[in-house]
Design brief:
Blueprint (H helix, E strand, L loop, with lengths): L4 E3 L2 E3 L5 E6 L2 H6 L1 E7 L6 E6 L5 E3 L7 E6 L4 E6 L8 E8 L6 H4 L10 E5 L2
Parallel strand pairs: 2-10
Antiparallel strand pairs: 1-3, 3-8, 4-5, 4-9, 5-6, 7-8, 9-10
Length: about 120
């Protein structure tokens, strides 16, 4: 199990923004494929974005253009900037890491992850 700490969730109105954070160890940040997943009530857990140690990013079609994944190399933290949020984005967001190649959302979906507590995002008017 790779220790990761998610934070940054909250409640926003439709059209609002949030930035989620995933704090990792330096080793994880430098060497692992990291990804954000979300669990929307009534749906299967969905991979939304991945970030490789070499800096490659990948997004699911459902979030492309609204969510941006980015690193803070000094803080060993991976961010998920979420803009133009919609009520259907409501759910629990999780950060995971694994040694997979290629580092893509589809590849990370095939891995059995140990899920942390996640961070709750609620989009409602």
């Amino acid at each position: 199990q790779v220790p990761l700490v998610e934070s940054g969730g909250g409640s926003v109105q439709p059209g609002g923004s949030l930035r989620l954070s995933c704090a990792a160890s330096a080793n994880t940040f430098r060497n692992y494929c990291m990804a954000w997943f979300r669990q929307i009530p009534g749906q299967e857990r969905e991979g939304v974005a991945s970030f490789s140690s070499s800096g490659s990013v990948d997004y699911s079609d459902s979030v492309k253009g609204r969510l941006t994944i980015s690193p803070d190399n000094d803080k060993n933290t991976l961010y998920l900037q979420m803009n133009n949020l919609k009520p259907e984005d409501t759910g629990t967001y999780y950060c995971v890491a694994s040694l997979v190649s290629p580092c893509k959302v589809a590849t990370m979906k095939l891995v059995t992850h140990s899920w942390g507590q996640g961070t709750q995002v609620t989009v409602s008017s």
